[in-house]
From TrEMBL:
Domain annotation CUB: ranges: 12-54
The organism of origin for this protein: Daphnia magna
Cellular component annotations (GO), alphabetically ordered: plasma membrane
SUPFAM superfamilies, sorted: Spermadhesin, CUB domain
Designated name of the protein: Putative Cubilin
Amino acid sequence: SPCDRLFRSDVDKNGTFTSPGYPAAYGPFMNCNYEFRGHGRERVQIIFTDFVLHHPHDDPSEKPHHPWLKQR
């Protein structure tokens, strides 16, 4: 996908990133993948300052279910 991003610890140890068009919502049918690669025992810490999982057609009273959000 054109919005996929790869972050490598040998290039940068710190930084920021945003989704396409932030703070507006993703465009229709977008599938963005963010991959973080480290070496050895390095770990990734992500601190979100703004994180919205609401889909415009969701019923706000329902429990969020987002099968498209993956943590690996």
